Amino acid sequence: MRSKDIAGAAVLAALASLLTLSGASTLLRMPPPFSYLVFDPSEIPSLIAYFSFNFRVSVLVAVIHFIFLLFRGEFIPIGPFMKFSAVISMLIGFHVAFKMKRKEIFCVMFSSLFRALVMTVVNIIVLITLFRDLILSISSNYTVGLLFILLVTAIYNITHVVLFNYPIARAIVYQIEKIKKLKY
What we know:
184 residues, 7 helices, mainly alpha, Arp2/3 complex 21 kDa subunit ARPC3, globular
């Protein structure tokens, strides 16, 4: 990895960590009982790294931020692991779709659906093992409660990529590219 890539990853991981420390990563929560679902801007630096550098740099940003969250995150280690799973699955989704040489809108949709699928599997494991009471608070029928939580969470994950992470990251990268083209 080039020193430029390492420096970019360090700066973007620091930005992700600062967004977490600032409290910005907890401002846009879903209403209860889904308040653990947060539209978190600290995911955006990983996507900026993907668009500005490459897949490896974006993964490095996500890994560094994950390590930071293990020390400063919420509900350690489950919360940081869930965040890392969401970000990595989003990045893998983008990477796979771009490798298929598809249009960017396809890549966004593929990434969001891939993230939703991966997070559904991860959520099934976490919910069944740790959050039986949450499932039963949604519905007295365990299966109905679980399916409802998974549906809401899948919609959240798709929305997080399509309407939050992607447009903000793309707008920032566009502005950075405009600045880089200016002649001094």
